Amino acid sequence: MGTLNPVENRVIGTINENSKQLKALQKSRQPYQGDWFEFNISSFSYISNNVIAVDPSIPVENFFQMGDKVRINQTAYKYFYVIKVDTPLNRLTLDAGAVYTFDNTTFTTFGISRLSNPLGHPLIFDFSNNLKVYCYDGSYHDDTANFQVIYGAYSMIGCIATISYDIYSIANMRAGAFIVLFYSPFKDRPQIQNSGGNETLTAGSVTTTGFFQISTLWESFAGGPPIAAGEVGIGIEALRVNAYPFASGEWGVNFTVTVGV
């Protein structure tokens, strides 16, 4: 039997070395799991809209936290944030603004993600149907119908939600200070963490714009606006002199509030 020449030896040696490296890479390589971790759906059941009971074999405090992103398939995918981890009852409360509701229909998947931008999950949720406006001129008046929401949205990281609104007047308004009320995604007691916005006042041909800080978490009190549990109230009167009313389209405001629990 003949022996291999030096060239053949080098080729075989290279092949063997490449084979070893490939096997090492295959062992060390972690398989791609995708953006979502899917649970067995038999461990989850509907309690009420956006509230899910979790089987005791999965203690919620060990697997979930506020701000987790959730994907559920109810005919089509729906996306949410976890806004409450209820340890005593082993339940999760979800929220998706005005976009999605987890309802009492069959669901076929339940997945979570802690990636910053998992596939399919919106960067922001529409929050435009969640605002009321009161005017105070010695007593409180519900003026919500006199305003239009141009933009309302929120996003969430951990236990902090960032809420943004852009509203303007669509009817003649009375003089007075204004309080804007909206629900925090957190239905427990919310706290304003940081806030600010821009107010625009048009009087005749002159438009004035300024920046204001929001620092007040309004509480319900006798004679005051009916602030419900989980509602945040902010006072806006930075530019407008409270001595005169203003006409349709004369006043607009955009603001961002960061709330948490």
Topology record:
Elements lengths: L5 H23 L8 E3 L4 E5 L2 E4 L5 H4 L5 E6 L1 E11 L4 E5 L13 E5 L11 E2 L4 E6 L3 E3 L4 E11 L2 E10 L7 E7 L7 E13 L2 E7 L18 E6 L14 E10 L1
Task: Write up what this structure looks like.
This protein has helices at residues 6-28, 60-63; strands at residues 37-39, 44-48, 51-54, 69-74, 76-86, 91-95, 109-113, 125-126, 131-136, 140-142, 147-157, 160-169, 177-183, 191-203, 206-212, 231-236, 251-260. It is mainly beta. Residues 27-31, 203-222 and 237-244 have low confidence and may be disordered. The protein folds into two domains: 37-113; 125-260, Adenovirus Type 5 Fiber Protein (Receptor Binding Domain) (Sandwich). 10% of the residues lie in helices and 44% in strands. The protein starts with 5 loop residues before the first helix and ends with a strand. Strand 2 (44-48) and strand 3 form a beta hairpin.
What are the defining features of this structure?
261 residues; mainly beta; Adenovirus Type 5 Fiber Protein (Receptor Binding Domain); 2 domains; seven-stranded antiparallel β-sheet; six-stranded antiparallel β-sheet; 2 helices; 44% strand
Could you provide a short overview of the structure?
With 261 residues, the protein is mainly beta.
Widest sheet, order of strands: 1-7-4-5-6-3-2
Unreliable spans are: 27-31, 203-222, 237-244
> Would you report the number of β strands?
17
How much of the sequence is in beta strands? 35-45%
Q: What value does the average pLDDT take?
A: 75
Number of helices: 2
- Topology-level CATH name of the largest domain: Adenovirus Type 5 Fiber Protein (Receptor Binding Domain)
How many distinct domains? 2
Shape: elongated
Question: In CATH terms, what is the architecture of the largest domain?
Answer: Sandwich
**Quaternary structure:** single chain
**Computed CA radius of gyration, to the nearest angstrom:** 28 Å
Q: Give the CA-CA distance, first to last residue.
A: 81 Å
SSE order = HEEEHEEEEEEEEEEEEEE
The CATH C-level class name of the largest domain = Mainly Beta
Class from secondary-structure proportions: mainly beta
